[in-house]
Write a structure and sequence with these properties.
The chain is an alpha/beta fold and 250 residues long. It is 44% helix and 15% strand.
Length: 250
């Protein structure tokens, strides 16, 4: 049985007081009997403050990015062990904004993924097609290539620490959500890929989140699909009541 993971990707939003207040509101509003695991991913400069705010609660903390090297002359970058140090459990890798705006490749994602796993972080690895790729019928190929490129060299045992996030690029921040059927079809494909690459036990263990304009009013239908194991939430994660409503929908 996979525990759904609802993670809030705050992206480059909020300042310190709002970030800490949002974390506290989620911490305090989270129901004791919540059926989902919950994580918040603030901008890196607020990781420490947010981690302190949720310490001892059921809310986990994740980073939005990291660098694959352990230390050294890499101005502006953060290592996996630094993220562990400030209390991170998760790190989002290969988000489409990093792939498309910052030019991250599957190889970059793969290096980061291996470093994250070695440091004991759970990577949330994002895959997803653009609108042009969907319209050209390339969704399955794109997801396949991103999966194999990003997870190269990852063992079956390590794979169970990885969370996949299917995020169709055309649905991110646009208000356009994939229909539950569209999302489920790709999630089922990803589950199949996991089985082919690893084995059925691993395929059944790995959580696959959906992301792209998840809101309180569409969350329940998406999350009720058999292969959708949670959500990676952008815009709606910046308001505690909306984020908590999505958690409740899980
Ligand atoms: P959105 O972002 O919910 O604002 O569409 C999702 C994401 O980028 O993870």
């Amino acid at each position: 049985m996979r525990t759904p993971l609802i993670a809030g990707n705050w992206k480059m939003n909020l300042h310190r007081p709002e970030a800490v207040a949002l974390a506290e509101a989620i911490r305090d509003g989270l129901k004791k009997d919540a059926q989902a695991e919950v994580a918040v991913c603030p901008p890196s400069v607020y990781l420490d403050g947010v981690a302190q705010a949720v310490r001892g609660s059921a809310v986990a903390v994740g980073a939005q990015n990291m660098y694959h090297e352990a230390n050294g002359a890499f101005t502006g970058e953060l290592s996996a062990s630094m993220l562990k140090d400030v209390g991170c459990k998760y790190v989002i890798l290969g988000h489409s904004e990093r792939r498309h705006i910052l030019g991250e490749t599957n190889q970059d994602v793969n290096r980061k993924l291996l470093a994250a796993l070695a440091a004991g972080l759970s990577p949330i690895v994002c895959v997803g097609e653009t609108l042009a790729q969907r319209e050209a019928g390339q969704t399955a190929d794109v997801v396949w290539e991103q999966f194999f490129g990003s997870l190269a060299g990852v063992s079956a045992e390590q794979a169970t620490q990885v969370v996949l996030a299917y995020e169709p690029v055309w649905a991110i921040g646009t208000g356009k959500t994939a229909t539950p059927e569209q999302a489920e079809a790709v999630h089922a494909d990803l589950r199949k890929i996991l089985e082919v690459r690893y084995n059925s036990q691993t395929a059944q263990a790995v959580r696959i989140q959906y992301g792209g304009s998840v809101k309180p009013d569409n969350a329940a239908e998406l999350l009720s699909q058999p292969n959708i194991d949670g959500a990676l939430v952008g815009g709606a994660s910046l308001k505690a009541e909306q984020f908590l409503a999505i958690v409740a929908a899980a």
